[in-house]
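Final report, results section. Input specification for complex C-07:
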Amino acid sequence: MQIQNNFLPMYYQLKNIIIDMIENEEIGVDECIPSEPKLMQTYNLSRTTVRKAIDELVNEGYLYKKQGKGTFVKGRGFEQGLIKLSGCSEDIRRYGLEPKPFVLKATIEKPSKRVAKMLEIDQEQETFYMERVIYGDEIPINKNKSHIPYHLVPGIEKVDFNKESLYKVIEKDYGIVITRAIRTVEAILANEEIALQLKIKEGAPVMLFKGQVYADMKGKEVIIEYFEAIYRSDQFQFYIEQHR
Amino acid sequence: MQIQNNFLPMYYQLKNIIIDMIENEEIGVDECIPSEPKLMQTYNLSRTTVRKAIDELVNEGYLYKKQGKGTFVKGRGFEQGLIKLSGCSEDIRRYGLEPKPFVLKATIEKPSKRVAKMLEIDQEQETFYMERVIYGDEIPINKNKSHIPYHLVPGIEKVDFNKESLYKVIEKDYGIVITRAIRTVEAILANEEIALQLKIKEGAPVMLFKGQVYADMKGKEVIIEYFEAIYRSDQFQFYIEQHR
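Structure output:
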């Protein structure tokens, strides 16, 4: 395909050429696209035009960048490993990464009115509150905030969650069986704090999940957790499976 | 709470004041926050500072704007109606909106190599391809692209999908029972086309879902659809329910 001098802007034509290469698998998933100088030369375009095309394809989820390494085709299919959206380290492991939580904060506190409502507890009842960043190998995958009614998990603040999985501890040490979760999802832009914690650019699009986790405790259904988790959206593929 | 002249930037302090109002439900969901002049006056701040605080809270999913009407608190809980992420008009109806599809394109075509792989068909086999925007009342909710193997739904191009629901037609007219879906989710930025179609700003964060829909056809499992859907993320709350 060639850039033509017609009514369409040149960066837009270059975008379509690259999309076609991806659609027709001339460049495979996780393969490098041609370098900027190469694209400038092949299609006789300025650096600005080439950059605009690539930046838009990154923003639209076709490509991702690795610092100092180049620009790669993002997995758009189901052919390779995917991380299931379930907060479980096993899924990160299945993707071939070694999951590692990093605790930023762990404390016992009184919840805000909104969080108390989410947990269906009184605002006077204490919660175990934890902020963590979960890494896959050396790459941050998500940052999450957990609120857990403290009376359901007394003593949990003594556990070192840099080493232990939250759900495993809840299930093993407290006789609680997690049964289901309801979560909302939205796209937001990373603020300065999130950008630093997830090692991405400020203003990059990220996914915000908020949810309630339900569990069975001695035959009674309880809300064991209210969480908010922010996932980076550039390198990994997250999936959801639903049955009708 | 008051703005203090300490080390924290003033826009950041104002953000925290507004977040506290939301967390403590002094301003409820879908209620208006104080106007810009009011905030400038109350906290003795410049318009630029107030705008920066509000813009960041919009980007981070705390607030949403309605043109000419003001800035409102976004639903962050599960107390009110939520739209289930299932592509079904019934869920939009449950939210109290009247769903209306608007067909942009409907055609029979040969798939790209990537789409053929997703549908597990040969690239020579034709597909029914449709692009639609789904409205709830007068507000666009999502834009989606469907690819359906044509041999499973011969004659489907004669249906007017401005009036009929895609899944209803597939199930009723072709004896196909939809059983499950696998979808990936990522956050991207709206490009010019999507911004126009969803009536949002270019560069606004949106959610991109891509997926395969499986169905039962005379006792055999088939992939009935590969889709890509872009959801706006500012006004509605979308949710996912998962059982463990």
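The mean pLDDT of chain B is 87. The beta strands of chain B are 63-66, 70-73, 83-84, 99-109, 127-136, 139-149, 176-189, 205-217, 220-232, 238-243. This concludes the modelling results for the funded period.
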